[in-house]
User: Which sequence fits this backbone?
């Protein structure tokens, strides 16, 4: 059975930073687990493909792959198979991250594949109109990240709140099921608070945590902030 | 220091077959190791990204990734970082497999990256003229695989020997350093023998081994065949 | 002002057949114009980029480009600019044809660009769920073409009518505005009749017309068939 | 028979600037023709696909397409067919421009296609090692353009002369046939002079000419400069 994620959700995208590769990825994963245990808030990590198997053996918080390909088992050298990330311990995958954008028909196929494998699908979108399109494909999670803010430290939830409110409205109009997250520039607890107030169910965060001096401390603060009513 | 591969070389490409995913990948890796130990022939395996770490811990034969991306560490969600496959235990990577073809400038960048990380680069090509182009970029290995024969059981070394002899000639004219392998349709020991006779230093094989009833037995035969003078 | 297309609509996609290149493209365009004039049915042609300008000078039926890129004017060597196809005489463009699939965010950007340039957008989709996703982006036309039937002579409207009825239903649920066409395998007047009966507003056709012995005659029959109530 | 280009060569890449679209493209083409006639220097223009046919009817200087696809005639909606650009009046094509990069096997296929159609192939490369790789595929022209300088006004021939001399050396070592051009940042006559002195046979230029107040005057100066021994 597919793991049900408890909201609010904080997803930490490890990307391909050196700070979140190999042993350092494992160490970061354990800090995320500790922060999740301490606060009771659902923290999900998304490490690099290569690190999924080792990390999944060592932590109990959920893991998402950063991508899977729109393929069935077969002759697809260099691609990422749903069955492989599942057997390694991932419970789902990011899809269409702005740094790994996909053709529309691939997104459709991948969401179908996740359903067949009982994997959680987190479809990433760059703007509200794309969020409404992707909602028609019925992913479990829609995460809005304006690419121009990624890595800037300028939080979408503070700088462009209307992007989030529009996304929430457009997604709900088409499909009430997806959990809605936001990302891009989230770096302070107040950015998290703003995201929750605007109607999201959590955040997708990367460099702020991965490159933090003390990722555990910052995750604690982020997690506590999500609880504020 | 970069592991020096001893010729002849048999590379087993696990692709994304279910028979070579997760636990079954590990089992296959162990059979390859056993065949290598028994024959003294260099057998190299190329499992899926997700399986590299676990397999590298359990076997002593060399592992290649099936692909890496032309990236440096940073914001590249869903991509494959050289440092990550290296830390997991791979000693190199396939590049530009016909199922994962790359832009010319990416191949150039990736070969540079492998040199910086002391990783072995195995550049795959679809025909002799492309083999000569890629040789100018100085990969460690050039592997010729006419895509129309992949998975057919019709061996390039039997059906189109001139493709191999042309490749050997064109590569040597431009760069004497690369080891030359051939693949596509290799399914019987006699295909291996033909490849060696035509001047290659070994083979790249996938479905014939991965989907064999007894991969160990077939690898034994392939390995023994490579020794025939 | 954007040309308003009158329904039913027959779009003839010239693809990159030799039979619809250069002078032969112009000849075919004139036959389409003649069939349109004779029947009063809206026939739209979609020639290759290079042929748009010459054909637009010689015929009065509407022209669509086969693709435009998600770009603004600038440094984009080898790409197709909305302003260039418009100035040459096209009144719109196909988007995301199954032979020229696009990333979701590109489809979104291109539809925006067509709106800014008063160009007609015809978004092509491969299945009903993708048709619903694309409808959220508000194209003028949605054309459903299951890629596995393209060029087969097996008409989607006869072989898989449920694909069309599902598409019509899903599109309408999300956006009542788009005109709905269907394609793939349309080769006989009865295929056209079936498409209309299933609730579409016309068809997208390619090889059946382009490679017909007498394209004018077949277009006449197709056009007459669309009028049957 | 393929038009033989007389060296030195100035190629003006129209890219997708508004200043070089439609009527303005035609006007610019005529200025290029006038400058070529006045100086006797070979000026070649590379307009957008859509504009090739109209311009080729109006000027007598050679035209290159900005790109063609690695396809044969057939079902390739939205692609660019060699036969179509040839019938429209182009005598060749740019290949693999840094803004339209291609897979290695595509470059190989496209150069083959140009040979079959007696079209001139101008392969663009981003650095010296890629120039040597592409030379093995035997294009008629190799044009080196470091992408980081494109559009900067900082000329490669002044800022990084070693890139050009390395390219000339590496190309010649592999294939003596290709004409060698350089581009990126060329904006003043002295940049042209530097390029010629470094051993190239001419230049590839875009924004400096397209966006010049008086493209004719600047082309005159560029052309005269190429004559300096």
Assistant:
């Amino acid at each position: 059975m597919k793991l049900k994620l408890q909201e609010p959700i904080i997803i930490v995208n490890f990307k391909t930073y050196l700070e979140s590769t190999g042993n350092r990825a494992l160490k970061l994963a354990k800090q995320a687990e500790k922060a999740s245990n301490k606060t009771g808030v659902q923290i999900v990590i998304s490490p690099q493909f290569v690190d999924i198997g080792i990390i999944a053996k060592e932590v109990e918080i959920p893991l998402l792959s950063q991508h899977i390909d729109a393929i069935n088992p077969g002759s697809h050298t260099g691609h990422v198979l749903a069955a492989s990330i599942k057997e390694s311990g991932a419970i789902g995958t990011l899809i269409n991250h702005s740094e790994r954008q996909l053709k529309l028909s691939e997104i459709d196929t991948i969401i179908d594949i996740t359903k067949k494998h009982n994997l959680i699908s987190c479809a990433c979108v760059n703007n509200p109109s794309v969020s409404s399109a992707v909602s028609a494909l019925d992913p479990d999670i829609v995460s809005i990240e304006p690419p121009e803010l990624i890595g800037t430290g300028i939080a979408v939830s503070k700088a462009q709140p209307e992007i989030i409110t529009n996304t929430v409205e457009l997604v709900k109009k088409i499909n009430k099921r997806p959990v809605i997250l936001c990302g891009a520039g989230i770096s302070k607890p107040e950015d998290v608070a703003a995201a929750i107030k605007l109607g999201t169910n959590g955040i997708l965060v990367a460099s702020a945590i991965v490159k933090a001096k003390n990722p555990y401390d910052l995750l604690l603060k982020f997690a506590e902030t999500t609880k504020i009513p």
